[in-house]
Design a protein that fits this description.
Length: about 375
């Protein structure tokens, strides 16, 4: 149920070390105005829908299907939110869930921890966040990473995210760090909109370089210029948590960007961390996306195992889930990492995963459609 695509020995060692161990799921929410650009993301059919995607996903993750949610899951052109996957697994396996608000336009209507960040402006302007906010979010991430890791001393954190437009800010951060990520990132579209992303990134980095000439060696200034609040919060969490527990960065492109970022931060500011305790876990829809190159990107980033759940929706009862097999949605809200944890923790295979996710989707669709 789990395939390791890069750094196979390190990846297998990670899986052996944490098999049967208790996971704790952390989901960090954020917002970037980049996600409101027409066509940039399919995580919400319209820019208006995408303003509340992360909030709606968070509400569903905590409450599950409700007849009248405060924030209904946004309509997608095709597919269903990946929060269905994460909710089904964490509920059925009683995996603790912690929500963090790194910078949202509105607070979620469910319990969460406020990191007191702020939403990011569009990365194309080259000044997405204030440097003060970035430094604060790094400090908060370091604090909470240590605190959460203490709750699973022999286990691991599964750290997921929800930021609409986040694969574009990931491309910007990777490029700013000197990683050749052009045409390698993924998106929620069935065919990745590489050209649109690249034009935004080039514009943002050009404007940012007028103010800060050495972005590559100043990772906090880079995030302030073209990043989003979730990235720096998770970077801090993973650095601190890796010192005493495992960390599964649950996502694809965005988590590869965060890994490159946290490594640079640790080196630049001489922060202790344990690289062998960190792995990246996603879905095979991301890892094998023919319109991106996640495996190639992981190879370029280097020295971190990329693994993916082999979960399939080919035989799902629901067209909204079968759409994943055509390249829609692919990942989000830690879905791939949760599926990996489900196998490691309670040895769920394809049958158990599909049964629980299908059942939750049936419940949701019956209540809302």
């Amino acid at each position: 149920m789990i395939r390791v695509y890069t750094q196979p020995q390190q990846g297998q060692n990670w899986l052996v070390r944490y098999r049967g161990r208790s996971p704790l799921f952390v989901c960090v929410l954020g917002f970037t105005a980049t996600g409101l650009i027409p066509g940039i993301s399919a995580a919400g059919a319209t820019p208006h829908d995408r303003q509340s995607t992360a909030i709606a996903d968070a509400e569903f993750l905590i409450n599950g299907p409700q007849p009248q949610p405060a924030y209904p899951l946004p309509p997608l052109h095709v597919g269903a939110s990946p929060t269905l996957i994460s909710r089904a697994i964490t509920q059925a396996q009683t995996i603790p869930v912690h929500l963090f608000n790194a910078g949202l336009p509105h607070p979620p209507p469910v319990p969460y921890i406020d990191l007191e960040g702020s939403p990011a402006g569009c990365l194309s302007q080259g000044r997405a966040l204030s440097l003060q906010t970035v430094k604060h979010l790094l400090e908060q991430g370091l604090h909470w990473g240590q605190k959460l890791a203490a709750q699973v001393p022999a286990g691991y954190l599964v750290i997921g995210e929800c930021v609409v437009g986040g694969t574009t800010t990931a491309l910007a951060v990777l490029t700013g760090l000197g990683v050749d990520a052009r045409d390698k990132v993924n998106s929620s579209h069935p065919t990745c909109n590489h050209q649109q992303k690249w034009q935004l990134v080039q514009a943002g980095l050009a404007k940012a370089s007028e103010l800060e000439r050495d972005l590559k060696n100043n990772p906090l200034a880079l995030v302030a210029a073209v990043g989003d609040p979730m990235q720096i919060a998770i970077a801090g969490m993973a650095i601190a948590a890796s010192r005493s527990s495992g960390v599964l960065l649950a996502g694809g492109t965005q988590m590869l960007a965060i890994y490159a970022l946290l490594r640079t931060i640790a080196q630049t500011y001489d922060l202790p961390w344990q690289p062998t305790n960190i792995a990246i876990g996603t879905t095979r829809w991301v890892a094998e996306d023919a319109t991106g190159d996640t495996v190639g990107l992981a190879t370029v980033v280097g020295k971190v195992p990329l693994m993916a759940t082999q979960l399939s929706f080919a035989n799902s009862r629901h067209a909204q889930l079968r759409a994943y097999e055509q390249g829609y949605v692919k990942e989000g809200v830690g879905a791939g990492g949760c599926a990996i944890a489900a196998h490691l923790y309670q040895n769920w295979g394809q049958a158990e995963l599909l049964t629980h996710i299908d059942a939750l989707a049936t419940n949701y669709l019956n209540l809302n459609f």
